[in-house]
Amino acid sequence: MRNSFSSHEPILNSDEELQHESKKPDYSFDRVFLNRFFRLLKVLFNSKGLNKVWSTSKEARKNSIFWLYMTFISLSIIYQVVVYFVGMIPSSFYAILTSKDVIGFRNYMLPCLFLVFSAATCKSLLNFMGGLFALKARRLLTVHLQDRYIKPKSMYTLVMNHDQIDNPDQRITQDIDKFTETLRQIVTNLIIAPIMVVYYGYKCWAVTGFAGPLLIFAYFFLGSFVSKKFIQPIVNAVFFKELQEGNFRYLHVRLRQYAESIAFCDGEEEEKIRATKSLETLLTYQRTIVNKELPLKMVNESFSYLGSILSYMIIAIPIFAGAFEDKDASELSAIISANSFVAMYLIYLFSTIIEESSKLSNLAGYTARIGELLEALDQVDDEIENIEIDHPHNRDDNQTDMIELEDITLYSPRSKLIVKDLNMKINQGDHVAIVGPNGSGKTSILRALACLWPCSKGRVHVPKIKLGKDIVFFPQLPYIIDGSLREQILYPNTTPTTKISDEEIVQLLEMVRLSHLSGLIESYDTNYSQKWNTLLSPGEQQRLVFARAFYWKPRFAILDEATSAMDKDTESHLYKTLIDLGTTVISVSHHPNVIEFHQKILRLDGQGGYSIEGEDMMPTSLLAV
Ligand SMILES: Nc1ncnc2c1ncn2[C@@H]1O[C@H](COP(=O)(O)OP(=O)(O)OP(=O)(O)O)[C@@H](O)[C@H]1O
After folding, report:
1. How far is 300 from 159, CA to CA, in rounded Å?
2. Is the CB of 605 under 6 A from ligand 1?
3. What is the distance in angstroms between the CA of the first residue and the CA of the last residue of the chain?
4. Coil, strand or helix: which one is 120?
5. Other beta carbons within 10 Å of 205
6. How many angstroms separate the CA atoms of 553 and 469, rounded?
7. Which residue owns the Cα nearest ligand 1 atom 10?
8. What is the pLDDT of residues 268-295, one digit of tens each?
9. Distance of CA 34 to the CA centre of its chain
10. SMART domains, alphabetically (predicted)?
């Protein structure tokens, strides 16, 4: 069987990486970024298609970030007002001190302390609200992507057929987190700054006329233009760095997963070389980002420092033009202090916007990764919908007791012919073995039965599946969930109310010859998470999956070499028990011991041809085993 590892990019060394680079798509700060970004914002502000984003209903407050965002923005505005008054404190002190006004000084202390305390409180609250904002944004985006990814057939189709989407898991678990964190850092500045720019621009104009704001605007546009040139290449590097992060992490997950196999093969040295190579590739991208951020930082810092000189140039205009001729020295110093604060703050706001650009490059990189996954999921939805229209699987209640393959022709996704014009009826009690050489397409026939692969011709009639209980699939590698023994047996438990008593568990463990498991675990409800792999051998894991089937008593069981790791005696015992429970089995196997439980044999030749043996034999349920 093929596994999902194929969807991951090969690990390249740095030279190969650079050659590879020219073929990669280009990610930058462009229209595609804006479209993807607005799509993500739509999820945040209107995640469940609410009629009005500003709705105050409980549901709207839960599924939209609108009100949290409004509170955040209101607080930011209050903070800016407080900052303005705090900024005016020095100029008031100049006036009081130069006029030696003791009473005025004493009276001014209290409002001064109040302002400072208010500024500190607002800033801390803003930080807190920012944390809440990032948290909620992460939840909304992750839930949205998970809902679209973890649903019937989507995950399988994306992982198997969309090789261009590397590490979807990393995009959901990490890239969203980084996206929301970066968004939180820039959101206040980018939203508040334009409002403040208008206000401080007006204030500046009142003192200096048009010259002041004009100079500052020209300075801002020059700064933005220059820094945009430096952002562009960073967006791309961020995207590919994240890709390599995913590959590196995946390599380590595999090391943990296959620790025993690697130890048996003495493969540690080889694995170390591969891990180091992957790390080197990742660090090459990280280094590229660090390198490219240097000139960007230099531009931004230069614009920040130049800003303070510019603020004095601006206030110099009315002074040299003789606008304050009638003022004495103390009045003039207060005016200079107040107005240079206004000009400086205006420049600071613009510099902040320019500085945020380095974060914008990260944001654009994460946006590309999340947006690309969403687009691939759109494509997957279309593919699934088209498959259902073009190649419908009949799941009608009239066909209750029969699976039928009606004149089907099946190809693999890489267009390899699996079987041509296959006709076969599987009635209740017709146990069918599918045999053939490796790669002949035995598992692929099961994929067609599970509706994972469409047939290019013909129809598959499958009895309507009720809560995953009428047909049970047993893969060769048993799927052991991250949960307790009770949950293992109930899986896939589509109704949370389904219960299983301790007595039933004991009975099922006896049936699958795993009674000793009760002594190994603390309780049937203890979550052993990843430890199941060390608690149970592969053969025991396969037996545990049979316990599920014995609990659900399905009408059909489809087994893909599901007893390959079991001893012969247990294998026979489990097959006999399953058949005695009234389940019809369809098995892929190479073992004569298994094949003898089946009435019909579907033999594939690997070239698209097939034969069916034993069509007229007695149902095997009647054979004594
Ligand atoms: N996801 C996939 N994408 C493209 N081709 C695939 C995919 N999965 C399987 N194939 C191809 O389909 C063919 C049949 O594969 P399948 O797994 O059905 O063989 P099999 O008879 O079950 O093999 P084995 O006995 O080794 O388990 C193989 O040539 C394989 O390369």
Report:
1. 42
2. no
3. 30
4. helix
5. 15
6. 7
7. 412
8. 888 999 999 999 999 999 999 999 889 8
9. 20
10. AAA (SM00382)
